[in-house]
TrEMBL record:
Gene name in the database record: tfdC
Pfam families registered for this protein in UniProt: Dioxygenase_C
Lineage: Bacteria, Pseudomonadati, Pseudomonadota, Alphaproteobacteria, Sphingomonadales
Organism: Sphingobium indicum (strain DSM 16413 / CCM 7287 / MTCC 6362 / UT26 / NBRC 101211 / UT26S)
EC number: 1.13.11.-, 1.13.11.1
InterPro entries per record: Intradiol_dOase_C, Intradiol_dOase_core, Intradiol_RC_Dioxygenase
Entry keyword set: Dioxygenase, Oxidoreductase
Protein name in UniProt: Chlorocatechol 1,2-dioxygenase
Length: 251
Protein backbone atom coordinates (compact mmCIF):
# COMPACT_ATOMS: atom_id res chain seq x y z
CA UNK A 1 0.00 0.00 0.00
CA UNK A 2 1.25 3.55 -0.67
CA UNK A 3 2.65 5.77 2.08
CA UNK A 4 0.86 8.68 3.68
CA UNK A 5 2.28 11.93 2.31
CA UNK A 6 4.05 12.83 5.55
CA UNK A 7 5.96 9.53 5.68
CA UNK A 8 6.58 9.70 1.92
CA UNK A 9 8.13 13.16 2.17
CA UNK A 10 10.31 12.11 5.11
CA UNK A 11 11.53 8.95 3.36
CA UNK A 12 12.22 10.61 0.01
CA UNK A 13 14.05 13.55 1.57
CA UNK A 14 16.20 11.20 3.69
CA UNK A 15 17.10 9.25 0.54
CA UNK A 16 17.91 12.48 -1.30
CA UNK A 17 19.99 13.73 1.63
CA UNK A 18 21.95 10.45 1.72
CA UNK A 19 22.73 10.61 -2.00
CA UNK A 20 23.63 14.31 -1.85
CA UNK A 21 25.98 13.60 1.07
CA UNK A 22 27.64 10.75 -0.89
CA UNK A 23 28.10 12.97 -3.96
CA UNK A 24 29.79 15.68 -1.91
CA UNK A 25 31.79 13.32 0.34
CA UNK A 26 33.29 11.50 -2.64
CA UNK A 27 33.79 14.60 -4.82
CA UNK A 28 31.66 13.18 -7.64
CA UNK A 29 32.08 15.38 -10.71
CA UNK A 30 29.22 16.71 -12.82
CA UNK A 31 30.40 14.46 -15.68
CA UNK A 32 30.28 11.43 -13.36
CA UNK A 33 26.83 12.47 -12.17
CA UNK A 34 25.65 12.74 -15.82
CA UNK A 35 27.15 9.30 -16.53
CA UNK A 36 25.19 7.89 -13.57
CA UNK A 37 21.93 9.46 -14.77
CA UNK A 38 22.48 8.01 -18.25
CA UNK A 39 23.38 4.60 -16.77
CA UNK A 40 20.18 4.51 -14.71
CA UNK A 41 18.13 5.46 -17.78
CA UNK A 42 19.60 2.62 -19.81
CA UNK A 43 19.19 0.23 -16.88
CA UNK A 44 15.52 1.19 -16.58
CA UNK A 45 15.00 0.75 -20.34
CA UNK A 46 16.43 -2.76 -19.96
CA UNK A 47 13.88 -3.41 -17.17
CA UNK A 48 16.65 -4.00 -14.65
CA UNK A 49 15.53 -1.46 -12.08
CA UNK A 50 13.84 -4.14 -9.88
CA UNK A 51 17.02 -6.25 -9.93
CA UNK A 52 19.27 -3.33 -9.02
CA UNK A 53 17.00 -2.17 -6.21
CA UNK A 54 16.56 -5.69 -4.84
CA UNK A 55 20.31 -6.31 -4.77
CA UNK A 56 20.95 -3.27 -2.61
CA UNK A 57 17.73 -2.43 -0.80
CA UNK A 58 15.28 -5.34 -0.47
CA UNK A 59 17.05 -6.58 2.65
CA UNK A 60 16.49 -3.24 4.39
CA UNK A 61 12.72 -3.40 3.87
CA UNK A 62 12.76 -6.93 5.29
CA UNK A 63 14.85 -5.91 8.29
CA UNK A 64 12.51 -2.99 8.99
CA UNK A 65 9.77 -5.62 9.37
CA UNK A 66 12.08 -7.83 11.45
CA UNK A 67 12.40 -4.98 13.96
CA UNK A 68 8.71 -5.14 14.81
CA UNK A 69 7.88 -8.85 14.55
CA UNK A 70 7.94 -11.33 17.42
CA UNK A 71 8.07 -14.27 14.98
CA UNK A 72 10.98 -15.91 13.18
CA UNK A 73 13.31 -13.57 11.29
CA UNK A 74 12.26 -12.87 7.72
CA UNK A 75 14.54 -12.69 4.69
CA UNK A 76 14.25 -11.58 1.08
CA UNK A 77 11.86 -13.70 -0.97
CA UNK A 78 13.92 -13.39 -4.13
CA UNK A 79 12.59 -13.69 -7.70
CA UNK A 80 12.20 -17.47 -7.85
CA UNK A 81 9.11 -18.08 -5.73
CA UNK A 82 6.23 -19.95 -7.41
CA UNK A 83 2.75 -19.83 -5.92
CA UNK A 84 1.85 -22.94 -7.94
CA UNK A 85 4.38 -25.27 -6.29
CA UNK A 86 2.90 -28.73 -5.69
CA UNK A 87 1.71 -30.14 -2.37
CA UNK A 88 4.26 -32.70 -1.12
CA UNK A 89 4.41 -35.08 1.82
CA UNK A 90 7.96 -36.29 2.42
CA UNK A 91 10.11 -35.67 -0.65
CA UNK A 92 10.79 -32.96 -3.23
CA UNK A 93 11.12 -34.20 -6.79
CA UNK A 94 14.71 -33.89 -7.97
CA UNK A 95 16.52 -34.51 -11.22
CA UNK A 96 19.35 -36.98 -11.61
CA UNK A 97 22.64 -35.17 -11.37
CA UNK A 98 26.07 -36.68 -10.83
CA UNK A 99 26.91 -34.17 -8.13
CA UNK A 100 23.74 -34.21 -6.07
CA UNK A 101 24.00 -34.49 -2.32
CA UNK A 102 21.02 -35.73 -0.27
CA UNK A 103 19.64 -33.28 2.26
CA UNK A 104 16.81 -33.58 4.77
CA UNK A 105 15.06 -30.40 5.87
CA UNK A 106 13.02 -30.70 9.05
CA UNK A 107 11.69 -28.63 11.89
CA UNK A 108 8.72 -27.56 13.91
CA UNK A 109 6.26 -24.68 13.72
CA UNK A 110 5.09 -22.94 16.91
CA UNK A 111 3.32 -19.75 17.83
CA UNK A 112 4.93 -16.99 19.90
CA UNK A 113 3.60 -18.58 23.12
CA UNK A 114 5.38 -21.84 22.32
CA UNK A 115 2.31 -23.86 21.36
CA UNK A 116 2.81 -26.23 18.44
CA UNK A 117 1.00 -25.28 15.24
CA UNK A 118 -0.40 -28.23 13.28
CA UNK A 119 -1.72 -27.60 9.78
CA UNK A 120 0.74 -24.80 8.93
CA UNK A 121 1.83 -24.70 5.29
CA UNK A 122 5.61 -24.92 4.95
CA UNK A 123 6.43 -23.95 1.37
CA UNK A 124 10.06 -24.81 0.51
CA UNK A 125 12.08 -24.01 -2.60
CA UNK A 126 15.77 -24.11 -3.44
CA UNK A 127 18.22 -24.39 -6.29
CA UNK A 128 19.11 -27.49 -8.25
CA UNK A 129 22.60 -28.97 -7.71
CA UNK A 130 23.69 -26.71 -10.59
CA UNK A 131 22.26 -23.49 -9.20
CA UNK A 132 19.06 -23.26 -11.26
CA UNK A 133 15.43 -22.83 -10.19
CA UNK A 134 12.57 -24.93 -11.51
CA UNK A 135 9.86 -22.99 -13.28
CA UNK A 136 12.45 -20.42 -14.40
CA UNK A 137 15.55 -22.10 -15.81
CA UNK A 138 16.32 -24.85 -18.31
CA UNK A 139 12.63 -25.80 -18.70
CA UNK A 140 12.74 -27.65 -15.36
CA UNK A 141 9.10 -28.36 -14.44
CA UNK A 142 7.76 -26.32 -11.52
CA UNK A 143 7.13 -29.41 -9.39
CA UNK A 144 10.87 -30.05 -8.97
CA UNK A 145 12.94 -28.70 -6.06
CA UNK A 146 9.92 -27.04 -4.48
CA UNK A 147 6.79 -28.05 -2.62
CA UNK A 148 4.24 -27.25 0.05
CA UNK A 149 4.32 -29.38 3.21
CA UNK A 150 1.78 -29.33 6.02
CA UNK A 151 2.96 -29.45 9.64
CA UNK A 152 1.68 -32.51 11.53
CA UNK A 153 -0.13 -32.76 14.87
CA UNK A 154 3.13 -31.84 16.65
CA UNK A 155 3.74 -28.89 14.34
CA UNK A 156 6.56 -30.87 12.72
CA UNK A 157 7.55 -31.12 9.07
CA UNK A 158 10.24 -33.17 7.33
CA UNK A 159 11.21 -33.46 3.67
CA UNK A 160 13.99 -35.20 1.73
CA UNK A 161 15.63 -33.34 -1.13
CA UNK A 162 19.09 -32.49 -2.46
CA UNK A 163 21.46 -29.80 -1.24
CA UNK A 164 21.25 -26.41 -2.95
CA UNK A 165 24.45 -24.71 -4.15
CA UNK A 166 25.66 -21.11 -4.44
CA UNK A 167 24.55 -19.33 -7.61
CA UNK A 168 25.10 -16.04 -9.36
CA UNK A 169 22.30 -13.52 -9.75
CA UNK A 170 21.73 -12.36 -13.36
CA UNK A 171 25.02 -10.63 -14.10
CA UNK A 172 25.04 -10.12 -17.85
CA UNK A 173 23.30 -6.72 -17.73
CA UNK A 174 23.65 -3.31 -16.15
CA UNK A 175 23.44 -4.51 -12.54
CA UNK A 176 26.17 -7.08 -13.12
CA UNK A 177 28.28 -4.45 -14.87
CA UNK A 178 27.94 -2.16 -11.86
CA UNK A 179 28.94 -4.91 -9.41
CA UNK A 180 31.93 -5.76 -11.58
CA UNK A 181 32.96 -2.12 -11.93
CA UNK A 182 32.80 -1.88 -8.12
CA UNK A 183 35.07 -4.93 -7.79
CA UNK A 184 32.26 -6.95 -6.19
CA UNK A 185 30.84 -10.33 -7.20
CA UNK A 186 27.34 -11.55 -8.02
CA UNK A 187 27.28 -14.76 -5.93
CA UNK A 188 24.69 -15.80 -3.37
CA UNK A 189 25.58 -18.50 -0.81
CA UNK A 190 23.65 -21.79 -0.93
CA UNK A 191 20.31 -21.43 0.81
CA UNK A 192 16.85 -22.88 1.25
CA UNK A 193 13.82 -20.61 0.88
CA UNK A 194 10.75 -20.95 3.09
CA UNK A 195 7.31 -19.41 3.23
CA UNK A 196 5.38 -20.55 6.30
CA UNK A 197 1.75 -19.60 6.73
CA UNK A 198 -1.36 -20.40 8.67
CA UNK A 199 -4.61 -18.44 8.80
CA UNK A 200 -4.60 -16.00 11.74
CA UNK A 201 -0.80 -15.73 11.74
CA UNK A 202 1.69 -13.48 10.03
CA UNK A 203 3.39 -15.29 7.15
CA UNK A 204 7.13 -15.90 7.58
CA UNK A 205 9.09 -15.61 4.32
CA UNK A 206 12.72 -16.42 4.90
CA UNK A 207 15.92 -18.12 3.77
CA UNK A 208 18.34 -20.28 5.69
CA UNK A 209 22.06 -20.51 4.93
CA UNK A 210 24.63 -23.20 5.72
CA UNK A 211 27.29 -22.50 8.33
CA UNK A 212 30.71 -22.35 6.70
CA UNK A 213 29.24 -22.22 3.21
CA UNK A 214 30.96 -20.33 0.40
CA UNK A 215 29.84 -16.67 0.09
CA UNK A 216 27.99 -16.75 3.44
CA UNK A 217 30.25 -13.90 4.55
CA UNK A 218 29.85 -11.88 1.35
CA UNK A 219 26.37 -12.48 -0.11
CA UNK A 220 25.95 -10.10 -3.06
CA UNK A 221 22.42 -9.34 -1.85
CA UNK A 222 23.49 -8.80 1.80
CA UNK A 223 20.72 -11.21 2.82
CA UNK A 224 22.62 -13.24 5.43
CA UNK A 225 21.90 -12.61 9.10
CA UNK A 226 23.53 -14.61 11.91
CA UNK A 227 20.12 -15.91 12.98
CA UNK A 228 19.51 -17.34 9.47
CA UNK A 229 22.66 -19.51 9.42
CA UNK A 230 22.39 -23.16 10.50
CA UNK A 231 24.87 -25.98 11.02
CA UNK A 232 23.65 -29.23 9.49
CA UNK A 233 23.66 -32.43 11.53
CA UNK A 234 24.00 -36.03 10.38
CA UNK A 235 20.90 -38.18 10.76
CA UNK A 236 21.14 -41.73 9.42
CA UNK A 237 24.15 -40.58 7.42
CA UNK A 238 22.29 -37.75 5.68
CA UNK A 239 22.97 -34.02 6.07
CA UNK A 240 19.99 -32.66 7.97
CA UNK A 241 19.01 -29.03 8.17
CA UNK A 242 16.77 -28.23 11.13
CA UNK A 243 14.75 -25.05 10.83
CA UNK A 244 12.08 -24.26 13.41
CA UNK A 245 9.60 -21.46 12.94
CA UNK A 246 7.73 -19.14 15.26
CA UNK A 247 4.65 -17.46 13.83
CA UNK A 248 3.45 -14.15 15.22
CA UNK A 249 -0.28 -13.48 15.29
CA UNK A 250 -1.71 -11.51 12.39
CA UNK A 251 -2.43 -7.87 13.17
FE1 LIG B 1 17.42 -18.35 -3.93
Amino acid sequence: MPMESEQLEAVVMDIVAGIRDAIIKHHVTVDQYRFAVDYLGRLADARELPLLLDVFLNVAAVDAENEVTKGSPQAIQGPYYREDAPAVTDRLKTLDHDNERPLVVRGQVRDIDGSVLPGAEVDIWHSTPTGKYSGFHDNIPVDYYRGKLTSDSEGAYRVATTAPVPYQIPNQGYTGALLEAMGRHSWRPAHVHFKVRKPGFKTVTTQVYFEGGQWVDSDCCSGVRDDLVRRTTQEDGVDTLTVDFVLDRAA
